[in-house]
Specification:
Blueprint (H helix, E strand, L loop, with lengths): L1 E4 L2 H5 L1 H6 L5 E4 L1 H7 L9 H15 L5 E4 L3 H9 L4 E3 L3 H8 L2
Parallel strand pairs: 1-2, 2-3, 3-4
Length: about 100
């Protein structure tokens, strides 16, 4: 089972979340994380990126995989280099929105 981190509080508690029995890995959602930090829509805001990295570090301390969504190619590459085990680079809502133009 994957846990999901989408708040600043969750990012700070990433190690404890990942260490929870039954959790096999953790997924970090920068979009909702940004909203929880008061920077709605700014997934690449420096504070959001720093919180994602804190979450990565916490999960890594447990030896479990951590993933993240990154719709921007540059952000995806940076997160891969920072230790993301898996990346989500698209979402159904984005695909539907693009197709509706």
């Amino acid at each position: 089972m994957l846990g999901q981190i989408e708040t600043a509080e969750g990012a700070a508690a990433a190690e404890a979340i990942a260490a929870t029995p039954g959790i096999d890995g953790v997924f970090v959602g920068p979009s909702d994380l940004a909203a929880s930090m008061g920077v709605l829509g700014q997934q690449t805001h420096p504070d959001v990126i720093a919180a994602v990295h804190r979450a990565f570090d916490g999960v890594a301390a447990t030896g479990k995989p951590v993933g993240v969504n990154a719709f921007d190619p540059q952000a995806a590459h940076a997160y891969a280099e920072a230790g993301a085990s898996f990346l989500l680079v698209g979402a159904d809502v984005a695909l539907v929105a693009r197709a509706s133009y």
